[in-house]
Amino acid sequence: MEGEQKQEIAPESPRYKTLAAKAAIAVGAALMLCAVVVAIGYAMLIARTQKPLSPVVMPERIFIVEKGDNAKTIAARLEREGFIADAFLFEFYAWNRRLSYSLQAGKYLLSASLSPKSIAEKIARGEVARDIITVTIPEGYGIWTIETKLREVGLLAQEKRHLIDFTVREFSARHDFFSDAPKDANLDGYLFPDTYEFEREATRDEIVGRMLDNFGRKLDALLREEIRRQGRSIFDIVIMASMIQKEVITAEDMRLVSGLLWKRIAIGMPLQVDATVSYALDKNDLTRADLATDMPYNTYLYKGLPKGPIGNPGKEAFLAAVYPTENDYLFYISKPNKETVFSRTLKEHNAAVVKYLR
């Protein structure tokens, strides 16, 4: 026979149908295998985007996304600066979650303990790092000293006006504890000493507002009621607390001095508090001439409370002003080691002065 002819299988034949079915099954199996491989690869990629570079907690560092940076640029810098293991993981996650056009410029606090997923989402949400400054205002600081402290730590850098330029009138509508204070008084006495966190760009109004809010919280309903019961004003209590803060240290001595000073007022005796004169003259080592200077803050010359607070008292001084300890004393001095010596009579007082201060 001259060359065998290929036997063709008719499409209608059972054999053709069997071969076609087998081919279809093979193609289906191949497609399914490809799908499984793709799914496994996808799952592995997703898992890698959720894995941080460092398994232990690492310190946060500033990472800056510049205006106009795209996902590729950001990813490359993240890898270069040691935040992620592979730039592709960040790019993939941003593309997969459609975040590529949501990435926002700014400063971010990141660490190698964050996964590419977490970093991408943080940048997409625009969770920029807050430039926070923590500052502690010690008890007894006056308004000028507070401002100096704030400026030293980097706050109020853009402010030209000073804290002392504020008056009670500007805040009386927002804070009812100013209701009995002179409207032209400054805010000394009401800027509550505490540890605060402010954003570097916080304005003078924001800083003062926070401190006044804190004062309002400390002046709770029970204290307000007790002050009213005693027939005193909040302004008078603030003045008394500011003097107590400057004069003695311990809570026990504060309450004893409070009782002594309120008693002096009741019997018409001058308070004779050195701290009020120091405040007015802005000096610590007072002379006899200083104590004879005629001014509203001179509690040697004028009876009763001085014109206004001489600093910003803390909680213990404030409580001492409201809850004084009754006692038989009329005099006190502070020894060089800050210990307070109380006396009942002028004779005892003069003896204590000779013994401890000369």
Number of strands: 6
Uncertain parts: none
Give, in spatial order, the strands making up the sheet with the most strands: 1-2
From the spread of the alpha carbons, the general shape counts as elongated
The helical percent reads 40-55%
Radius of gyration: 38 Å
User: What is the averaged pLDDT score?
Assistant: 90
Q: Treating each run of at least 4 consecutive H or I residues as one helix, how many helices? A: 13
Measured distance between first and last alpha carbons: 143 Å
- Biggest beta sheet summary: 2 strands, antiparallel
The helix-strand sequence is HEHHEHEHEHHHHHHHEEH
| Class from secondary-structure proportions | mainly alpha
Strand content: 5-15%
List the helices and strands and how they pair.
Layout (H helix, E strand, L loop, with lengths): L13 H36 L11 E5 L5 H10 L6 H10 L9 E5 L5 H10 L6 E5 L6 H10 L42 E5 L4 H15 L2 H9 L4 H14 L3 H16 L7 H8 L6 H4 L23 H8 L8 E4 L5 E4 L2 H12 L1
Antiparallel strand pairs: 1-2, 3-4, 5-6
Short description:
With 358 residues, the chain is mainly alpha-helical. The protein has 13 helices and six strands.
Structural commentary:
The structure is a single chain. The protein is mainly alpha-helical and 358 residues long. Among the domains are: 61-125, Endolytic murein transglycosylase (Dna Ligase, domain 1); 143-327, no CATH class. Helix content is 45%, strand content 8%. The chain has 13 helices and six strands. The chain has a two-stranded antiparallel sheet with strand order 1-2. The chain is elongated, with a radius of gyration of 38 Å. The chain starts with 13 loop residues before the first helix and ends with a helix.
